[in-house]
Amino acid sequence: MRQLQSILLAIVLLSAFGLHAARPSAAKAISFTKIDGRHWLTSPDGQPFFAHGITHVNNTRVKIDFAKISKACKALGFNAYGYGCPEQLRTDMPFVESWNHLVPISYYRGKDNIRFLDVFDPKIQAKLDNGVKASCFRSRNNPNVIGYCWTDLGAWPLENPSGRNWVDFIRNLPGDAPGQKAYRQFLNGRKGKDDQARDRAFLRLIAREYFRVVGGAQRKYAPGRLVFGERFGVSKLSRFTTMAPEVLEEMLPYVDGIAIQPPFQSGFPKEQFDKIYKQTGKPIILCDFAVRFKDGDKDIRSWKPEENSVAAGKAYAEYVKAALKTDYIVGVFWCNPVDTAKGFGKPGVKQGFFGDGLTERPGLHQSVKEINAFRDRMTPKR
């Protein structure tokens, strides 16, 4: 009898501690709602909002006073942080949670730094599951999480700026690798001699397996949270577009919205966004964007930068206003808080929203104040 009581006590303790340690909190979460035909983010207390803020506030290439940047952002009317939000600001405003290290295939890493994975390998799948779990558990109890994003500008298309692709990687694995076995099995059931069609079909299988693992883990460890998935680059120039149709289709069952990084220049590309929304039927968040501008002798690497911060401010405000008037876009985030060096040994300056020491950018900051006031006026009140 005493032994039975001990067993029952152990079960109770496991239920009280062990299971709770492995299960995400059921705390209220930010969600989507639709009001008068427009999609909105909705806070845990039911208030609709359009997210507008800055990404990469945790940028480790420069020291940032987080209390000061919080005050500066709020003074301008920003109401959220994009991905790359530091721990110190995660209770400050809503933020986008993300990871970009689990699958290091961002095309800007360059040919020598991209590392594709054998997603058919059970050991790799287990590592991905654990990585997603850690990302989810990092913020599982935080009601400020807008949603989760994954790999940034992945080298998904067969032709992309990195010069490498996932299909070639799997095809060249050793004969006993799970991915190589999956590829041979795929070829055995394949008819026709169109190499391009063959590779696109196998890319679809890679994406299907990847999203089954990553998307499944995301839903398992962060139930009830919004998921935006891969951060896709979209451009009129196909070489800078990372959204392969097969990949997008395979991702859709695992996400609630779509994360887009448009070109960093003026001119709202509504036609492109309309096409994506028509394909997916899901709200879009512009997760990383900016209008770059000339700044003295600084090497600002950008396609057609504006002449100065005043012109950039006007162009940026027009862009955000167009996004606000597009009923499926739920947020816009400016890329980078302050000037930093570019990563992966690339030359030039990655321009920031603030000047040195978080100082004001003439024209730009006033334009942002005005567009945020416009956002507040058009946001429904509940």
In short:
This protein has ten helices and 13 strands. With 382 residues, the protein is an alpha/beta fold. Strand 1 (31-35) and strand 2 form a beta hairpin.
Task: Please tell me about this protein's structure.
With 382 residues, the protein is α/β, with parallel strands linked by helices. Helix content is 37%, strand content 15%. The chain has helices at residues 2-22, 66-75, 122-138, 166-171, 178-188, 195-221, 245-251, 270-280, 309-324, 364-378; strands at residues 31-35, 38-42, 48-49, 51-54, 80-81, 95-98, 145-152, 227-233, 258-261, 284-289, 329-334, 340-341, 349-350. The protein has an eight-stranded parallel β-sheet with strand order 5-4-11-10-9-8-7-6, with helices on one face. It has a three-stranded antiparallel β-sheet with strand order 1-2-3, with no helix packed on it. The termini are far apart.
